[in-house]
Amino acid sequence: MVLLSNCDESDTSPNVSPIEFNPNRTYGTMTDQDGNVYKTIQIGEQTWMAENLRVTTFRNGELIQMVDESEDWENLDTPAYCVPLDKNAYRDVYGLLYNKYVCSDDRLIAPEGWHIPNRDDWYELSNFLGSGSLAGRKMKEQGFSHWVDPEDINFLGGDNDSGFTALPAGYRVNSYYRFGRQATWFVDSTPLSDDHISVVSLYDHINDLNFHGYDGYVGFSIRCVKDE
Q1: pTM of the full predicted structure?
Q2: CA 183: distance to chain centroid?
Q3: How far apart are alpha carbons 151 and 227 in whole angstroms?
Q4: CA 55: distance to chain centroid?
Q5: What angle do CA 37, 73, 56 make, to 5 degrees?
Q6: Local confidence band at 10 (pLDDT 50, 70, 90 cut-offs)
Q7: Residue 168: which of 210, 134, 140, 133 has the closest Cα?
Q8: What is the 3-state secondary structure (H, E, C) of 92-105?
Q9: Helices 132-139 and 119-129: angle between axes, nearest 10 degrees
Q10: Exposed end of the chain (fewer CB within 10 Å): N or C?
C-alpha cells in the first residue's frame, strides 16, 4: 500500500456544507439501528445508501468502540470506528471510518435488510453505470463543495447522474489521509485476511472506479446495499 499524501491545510479546514444530492433523482430513506436516517437511491435493480454509514452499534445494540489515538488504531484487533479527522462536525456529512473487524463481526453492522456490498454488488453497480470513468463520474457528488478541485481545466468532476453521491472521507492509518481527495469503501470478502482487505475507491483527479487491496488495519467508509 502506498500512502499517496497526508492531510495538508486544505484537507483539514472545516467543510461542513450540506451534501449536494442530485435534484433530478428520486430518493428514498432508510433508518439504522441508532435512529440515523439516510437517503437511498435505486440504481438499476439495486438500492444503495446515498450516504456513508455513521452507525455506532451493531444490530443487536452492542456498542462499537470509538478510537481516537492513532497508535491504538494501528494495534487494534477488535471492532472500532472514528470520525474523519477527529472532527465531530464531519460525522453527518462524511459518515464514519471503520476498521475491518467491524465488517467481519457476526453481530453485523449493516442495518436490518441491508448488507456490506460484496464484489458482485460493486461490479453490478459499475457495469450498470458504464464501468471505469463513466461509472465514477456518475457516482461522485457534483462539483467541488467537498471534493478537492484538481485545478485541471480539462478535468470533468462528478455529475452524480446516478444519485450515489460519493463523498471523499479519506482513510485512516497512523493518521488521516486523503480527506477531500479519496472515497474508499469496504468490499465484503468474508472471511477477511489477517493482513489484507478488499476495497473500492474513487479519487479526486480521475473518475475511474478502482478495485484494489489495502493493509488490514486501515479504516474506511461503508456504504450498504439493500438485500434482494
Answers
A1: 0.89
A2: 6
A3: 40
A4: 13
A5: 20
A6: very low
A7: 140
A8: HHHCCEECHHHHHC
A9: 90
A10: C
Closest CA to 102 of 168, 190, 180: 190
Q: Which three cell numbers stand for residue 50?
A: 446515498
CA atoms within 13 A on the CB side of 118: 7
- Cβ neighbourhood burial of 202 (10 Å; 0-12, 13-18, 19+): buried
* All cell numbers assigned to 51: 450516504
Helix H or strand E segment including 133: helix 132-139
* Residue 58 in this model has a pLDDT that exceeds 90: yes
- Say how far apart CA 96 and CA 86 lie, in whole Å: 10
Contact 47, 221 (CB under 8 A): no
Evaluate if residue 158 carries a pLDDT over 80: yes
Q: Tell me the pLDDT band of 196, cut-offs 50, 70 and 90.
A: low
Strands 37-43 and 28-31: antiparallel
| Number of alpha carbons in the 13 Å side-chain half-sphere of residue 36 | 20
Distance of alpha carbon 28 from alpha carbon 37, whole angstroms: 10
Identify the H or E element spanning 10. Answer: helix 9-12
Residue 86, SS3? helix
CA pair distance 151, 43, nearest whole angstrom: 30
Dig out the grid coordinates for 53 from the structure.
454509514
User: Cα(36)–Cα(74) distance, rounded to whole angstroms?
Assistant: 28
CB 215, CB 198: distance < 8 Å: no
Tens digit of each residue's pLDDT (9 = 90 or more) over 101-152: 999 899 999 999 999 999 999 999 999 999 778 899 999 999 888 998 877 7
